[in-house]
Design goal:
The structure is a single chain. The protein has about 325 residues and is an alpha/beta fold. It folds into two domains: about 130 residues, NAD(P)-binding Rossmann-like Domain (Rossmann fold), CATH 3.40.50.720; about 190 residues, Rossmann fold. It is built from twelve helices and 13 strands. The strands form two sheets. Strands 8-7-6-9-10-11-12 form a seven-stranded parallel sheet, with helices on both faces. It has a six-stranded mixed sheet with strand order 2-1-3-4-5-13. The radius of gyration is 21 Å and the shape is globular. The model has no long low-confidence stretch (mean pLDDT about 95). GO terms for molecular function: D-lactate dehydrogenase (NAD+) activity.
Length: about 325
């Protein structure tokens, strides 16, 4: 059987082909699944998609009409998939329920340290042989407070690193993680976490209840010199409200690996044509902001685990079995 994989990065392609070698043929495309590209899937029973695929109702109906019966998404998040429509169409949908939490946690810390110690500005200067230190003053994080919103596997990994820095830990989640409390984390309401934290990192899924979790009210409650990091989902942050606060000169630094309108932008070269997203364009201009293109997961270990899980999801579909990765049909 030949499988069609959308949104495959050049680094991923040989890994995917090797993982399916001897089992199935796989056709890897660098284009993302959208309404415009969905007709390419005509005749493919199994389609694999990336995190930025459009799997809304129109795309799902186009896939089903073309003979697709199974969608294997190569990510943990599935807020881009209309699961109700998929179920009505009889489509099987599977994701990757987990992969290396260290990959995302370590990258969140990379962003935090980059904005705290002004690394991007420093490197830009030294490339021009400007070795001044003006404007590069950071601060020690030891002894300060880290607020972790979402203390699952990734949030726990982030908290362990914070603990290693000697930081006080505040946490917010629907349930407490014993491993985090063992590190000395105090669970509080999110209002206190926003008000008291020097560094805030987001590690919660994007759900209707968490859409714009960091809204204008939350941003106003944060310390003027706080650091905000989001390596989870862009929709957790009200970007328009964030830009308004940055225009007022607030926050020591903001590190964003995700953006709420990233679909159609991230993973695409826009260096020649530019972008028409005024909010993102303005956000990137702030000297205390670092934006990366949803790469926190992008390590050999994590990508390998994602691909291995995708291979298993395909095998389960063909064998008629299921695992915790299956979203549709729901249990």
């Amino acid at each position: 059987m030949e499988i069609l994989a959308f949104g495959v990065q050049s680094d991923e392609k040989p890994l995917i082909e090797k993982a399916f070698e001897g089992q199935h043929e796989v056709r890897c495309l660098d284009v993302f699944l959208t309404e415009d590209t969905a007709p390419i899937a005509q005749g493919y029973e199994i389609v694999s998609t990336s995190v930025n695929a459009d799997l809304g109702g129109p795309v799902l109906r186009a896939l089903a009409a073309g003979g697709t019966r199974m969608i294997a998404q190569r990510s943990t998040g599935f807020n881009n998939i209309d699961l109700d429509v998929a179920e009505r169409l009889g489509l099987r949908v599977a994701r990757v329920s987990h992969y290396s939490p260290q990959s995302v946690a370590e990258f969140a810390w990379t962003l935090a340290m980059a904005v705290n110690r002004r690394i991007v500005r420093a490197v830009s200067r030294t490339r021009d042989f400007d070795f001044r230190l003006d404007g590069l003053l950071g601060r020690d994080l030891h002894g300060r407070t880290a607020g972790v919103l979402g203390t699952g596997k990734i949030g726990e990994a982030f908290a362990r690193i914070a603990h290693g820095f000697g930081m006080e830990l505040l946490g917010w989640d629907v349930t407490e993680n014993p491993a985090c409390t063992a590190l000395g984390m105090t669970y509080v309401d999110k209002e206190r976490l926003f008000a008291e934290s020097d560094l805030i990192s987001l590690h919660v899924p994007l759900l209707p209840a968490t859409q714009h979790l960091v809204d204008a009210t939350a941003l106003a409650a944060m310390k003027d010199d706080a650091i905000l990091v989001n390596s989870s989902r862009g929709g957790l942050v009200d970007t328009t409200a964030l830009v308004a606060e940055l225009r007022r000169g607030r926050f020591s630094g903001v590190g964003l690996d995700v953006y709420e309108a990233e679909a159609g932008l991230f993973y695409v070269d826009k260096s020649i044509e530019g972008i028409d997203d005024d909010t993102l364009a303005r956000l990137i201009t702030f000297p205390n902001v670092v934006v990366t293109s949803h790469q926190a997961y992008y390590t050999r270990e994590a990508v390998g685990q994602i691909i291995d899980a995708t291979v298993r999801n395909v095998a389960d579909h063909l064998a008629g079995t299921r695992s915790e990765n299956v979203l549709v049909p729901a249990v």
